[in-house]
């Protein structure tokens, strides 16, 4: 009898322990069920870290607001942030990890076109939507055969639009006839902008008198700039990222090459003026997604919120990140549940989404139809010049 009683008590203790464990795990399970996991695949270190950091800041501000206002579908958004180190191979690894290990419903990032394209295969294979706020290459959302990448989207305008816009600006607004083009031959972004600028400039009656190339992380550009100066162009089209552009513009001015310099959204970094110096950047123009001088009520509200959180003025990458988070939240809401396939379909069906960087609709190639802003650098600060609708 005593042995039976002892066995009964041991069994009762075991059942009580298992029940307690089960109950203690319930809150965690409930907590997980109350969140929607979204992956961030960004350049938080490395050569273009200011882009990744800027986009992430904007995303985190937006998600903070979204969660404070009840989240999406009654759930809080949980961000899983991973650094791709500004490296293509690492961007691919991060995408795979977010999709398979972290089980996110969508991936935001990367910042650059190259890293975004590297991250796309893993997202597509695992049927997780990947959305970039700033990748501008034309082939981010379509493959070499022109087929749409089903799970890849972007909310920034394409390189073709930037290149065409600047060629039109050079001929119609600045009345320039001859151009030099200096391209980063290691960058899809730079080559894409250059191609479309050259084609449009020539079609409009302009002449490209010289084309030179450089490589990312070069530091001495005087030889190619001397060759360019010898051709006496009216304008230098210099599509690239701020680190190289800053050095190139500085060295161009030192050599007496004082023609207007035109470029794209890769110029948008506070480090540009640190590298080039304010005086060297006079007579520099670039296409961008946003101007801090926009006084629309929603933009003013965003700028105030950004300054309150981070203690500095918002730039275009901050605004794009902010729009990106709300863009995804809008799609999740329309999807009706946090299901990756349904979210993908909702993203593709987006019409007239109103963001800080403009109102956009997603076209059949998963690209946005939206306006482009042209900025002029004056005394080291980008100043709003004009806005062109698509």
3D structure, described in words:
The model is unreliable at 1-31 (pLDDT under 50). The chain has helices at 2-33, 49-68, 88-100, 113-125, 159-173, 188-203, 222-230, 242-254, 271-276, 297-310, 316-335, 340-348, and strands spanning 35-42, 76-83, 106-108, 130-132, 152-154, 178-184, 207-214, 235-237, 261-263, 284-288, 353-355, 358-362, 368-369, 372-378, 381-388. The chain is built from twelve helices and 15 strands. It is α/β, with parallel strands linked by helices and 390 residues long. It starts with a helix and ends with a strand. Strands 7-6-8-9-10-14-15 form a seven-stranded mixed sheet, with helices on both faces. The longest helix is centred in the N-terminal third of the chain and has 32 residues, at 2-33. β11 (353-355) and β12 (358-362) form a beta hairpin. The protein has two domains: 33-157 and 294-370, Response regulator (Rossmann fold); 160-288, Rossmann fold.
Quick take:
The chain has helices spanning 2-33, 49-68, 88-100, 113-125, 159-173, 188-203, 222-230, 242-254, 271-276, 297-310, 316-335, 340-348; strands spanning 35-42, 76-83, 106-108, 130-132, 152-154, 178-184, 207-214, 235-237, 261-263, 284-288, 353-355, 358-362, 368-369, 372-378, 381-388. By secondary structure, it is an alpha/beta fold. It has 2 domains: 33-157 and 294-370, Response regulator (Rossmann fold); 160-288, Rossmann fold.
């Amino acid at each position: 009898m005593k042995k039976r009683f002892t066995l009964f008590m041991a069994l009762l203790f075991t059942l009580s322990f298992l029940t307690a464990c089960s109950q203690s795990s319930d809150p965690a399970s409930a907590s997980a069920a109350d969140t929607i996991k979204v992956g961030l695949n960004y350049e938080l270190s490395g050569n273009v870290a200011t882009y990744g950091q800027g986009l992430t800041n904007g995303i985190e501000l937006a998600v903070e607001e979204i969660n404070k206002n009840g989240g999406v579908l009654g759930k809080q958004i949980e961000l899983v942030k991973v650094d791709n180190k500004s490296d293509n191979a690492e961007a691919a690894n991060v995408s795979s990890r977010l999709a398979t290990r972290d089980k996110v419903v969508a991936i935001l990032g990367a910042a650059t076109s190259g890293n975004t394209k590297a991250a796309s295969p893993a997202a597509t294979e695992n049927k997780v939507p990947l959305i970039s706020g700033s990748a501008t290459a034309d082939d981010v959302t379509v493959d070499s055969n022109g087929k749409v990448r089903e799970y890849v989207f972007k909310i920034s305008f394409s390189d073709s639009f930037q290149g065409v816009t600047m060629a039109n600006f050079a001929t119609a607004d600045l009345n320039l006839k001859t151009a030099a083009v200096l391209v980063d031959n290691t960058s899809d972004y730079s080559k894409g902008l250059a191609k479309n600028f050259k084609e449009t400039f020539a079609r409009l009656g302009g002449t490209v008198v010289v084309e030179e190339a450089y490589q990312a992380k070069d530091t001495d550009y005087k030889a190619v700039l001397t060759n360019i100066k010898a051709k006496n162009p009216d304008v230098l089209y210099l599509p690239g990222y701020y680190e190289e552009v800053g050095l190139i513009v500085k060295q161009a001015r030192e050599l007496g090459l004082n023609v207007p310099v035109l470029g794209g959204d890769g110029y948008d970094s506070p480090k540009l003026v640190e590298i080039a110096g304010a005086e060297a950047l006079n007579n520099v123009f670039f296409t961008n997604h946003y101007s801090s001088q926009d006084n629309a009520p929603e933009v003013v509200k965003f700028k105030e919120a950004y300054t309150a959180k981070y203690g500095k003025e918002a730039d275009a990458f901050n605004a794009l990140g902010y729009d990106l988070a709300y863009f995804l939240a809008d799609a999740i809401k329309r999807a009706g549940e946090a299901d990756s396939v349904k979210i993908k379909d909702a993203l593709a069906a987006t019409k007239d989404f109103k963001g800080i960087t403009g109102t956009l609709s997603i076209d059949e190639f998963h690209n946005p139809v939206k306006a482009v802003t042209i900025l002029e650098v004056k005394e080291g600060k980008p100043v709003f010049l004009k806005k062109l609708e698509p």
